[in-house]
Structure formats: structure tokens, C-alpha cells
Amino acid sequence: KADIEAMAANPKPGAVAGCPGCKQGGSMPAAPEGAAPAAAAPAAAAPAPAPAAAAPAAAAPADGSFAYGKYDGQLWDHAAKKDVYSAWDPNSPRTTQNFNPFETFGGNSPDASGIYPGENRYKDPIRGDVNYAQMMEEKADIEAMTASPKPGEAPGCAGCKN
User: Fold this and answer.
1) What is this structure's pTM?
2) Which DSSP string corresponds to 17-64?
């Protein structure tokens, strides 16, 4: 009880009912009788700058539900990525069914639904084992795709994240 009375007599600056760090509907403990009121809290510091706008997430189906990608819950290997890439239309809006699986965003690759780490609904993909020879074959495939992009594939196109 003494601890609660001490907190009420000397609250932290800015600790008032409804402050951002307080529970909604919560209140500060009442000061014990005879305690001197605490000094007024100093003026609030300038608000922090607004964070950079987050990249838009993959579009949801028209009925409002969410549909994960074709390979959600399945092996997300190079063959699966090539299959998704072959179906990708850069001129159509980016969705969980229409995205470039080889496009990186912030240094990250998308999951099997085109969602990047840190975004809502991201799932760690199921990855297969690879060896150095496979990695070199995949690198050659990706370089060939980069050398001959699909019609309409350019930064900022409807089907791209970047």
C-alpha cells in the first residue's frame, strides 16, 4: 500500500488518466490524505515526426475476404516462383494471386502470397533445401528474366510493389 501511495504522491510526468501509456478507462490512484499535490507536469515535447508511409499491402478480393496465394502452405521453391512469375501480369493490379515473386522490397523477398516481412498477413514460406549448383541455376534464370522483362514490367507498374 505504501508503494501505491508513493506513486500517487509523485506521479511520472505526463501520467494522467487517459494518457497514451495508461489503460483505457483507467485512472491514477488518488493521492493519500495530507500529501502535497505533485508539481504540474512539464509541457509535452514536440510530437515525433510521422513515420514514412507504409507500402500498400496486396489487394483483397472484391467480396472483402482475404485469399492467400496459390502456394500458401506449400513448398515455396524456385519452381513455384517461376510458376507464379509466368502467371504474373504486370499491367494488372498487384494482388496475392498476381505479383512478381522475384521482386524485392526493402531488401526482402515476398512470401507465397506476395506479402513482405513486416506486413499484415505475412507467413514464413516453406523453403526447400538448396545447394550451390541449384543457386547458380536459379541465378541464371533470374538474370534471364531480368534481361527480357515482361511487357509493361517497369518500376511503378500496376503489378509491382516498387
Assistant:
1) 0.59
2) TT-TTSPTT--PPPPPTTPPPPPPPPPPPPPPPPPPPPPPPPBPPTTS
